[in-house]
Design a protein that fits this description.
Elements: H1 3-17, E1 25-26, H2 28-35, H3 39-52, E2 55-58, E3 62-65, H4 70-94, H5 97-115, H6 119-137, H7 140-161, H8 166-182, H9 186-194
Antiparallel strand pairs: 1-3, 2-3
Length: about 200
């Protein structure tokens, strides 16, 4: 992987996992040392992420992770859900027996993560679910768009999952989607995904 692309992916991953938080300043020299990239490569990568809306440039202060408003987070989540609903409906129509078995294994992982209140494992299982939906539905373009948008709202989603019984409620929606996919019910799968916005 090209050094600049490596830096872009590392920063995206850091934002998605919560390692890099909204408002956190990114120092070119530190990133370059950590990732084994030149300052020029790091600067180019950071500017790319500024243009994507993940970072913001502060005059005379460098670059920091951009905090988004509640309204922007809501709109981003709604856009993601619309694309994901299309993908999950198509996955329900196209899933084979081996795919259904994989979805059920993901369901088990989600339940275990909820039982142990392990947010990292929960997010990992959700990521596996999303990846499998995209593979089965063959919606690569939608997947690329959703992937980029979800990084923007990762921090907001993580905070929401920690409130009250949101983790349990979200897991139930995923289980509903898995059962709908297993039954080939595209409409039910899509409805279960749409209900995530109410969790």
């Amino acid at each position: 992987m090209h050094a600049q692309a490596h830096v872009v992916e590392a920063v995206r991953r850091g934002i998605a996992t919560g390692e890099l938080l909204p408002g956190q300043r990114l120092v070119e020299a530190d990133l370059g040392e950590k990732l084994g990239a030149s300052r020029g490569m790091v600067r180019g990568a950071l500017m790319k992420l500024v243009h994507e809306g993940l970072l913001e440039q502060i005059p005379h202060s460098g670059v920091r992770v951009r905090a988004i408003t509640e309204e922007e987070a809501t709109q981003t989540a709604e856009a993601c859900l619309a694309l994901q609903a299309m993908c999950v409906a198509k996955a329900a129509r196209m899933a084979g027996e081996a795919d259904v078995e994989r979805f059920h294994r993901i369901g088990v992982a989600l339940r275990q993560a909820v039982t142990s209140r392990n947010l990292t494992e929960f997010e990992r299982a959700v990521g596996e679910f999303d990846d499998l939906v995209l593979r089965v539905s063959a919606q690569n373009v939608a997947g690329e768009i959703v992937g980029r948008l979800r990084v923007r709202i990762a921090h907001t989603e993580r905070k929401a999952l920690l409130r009250g019984s949101a983790l349990e409620a979200t897991a139930l929606r995923y289980e509903e989607m898995i059962e709908a996919i297993a039954g080939g019910d595209a409409e039910r799968a899509s409805a279960a995904l749409a209900s995530l916005v109410a969790v």
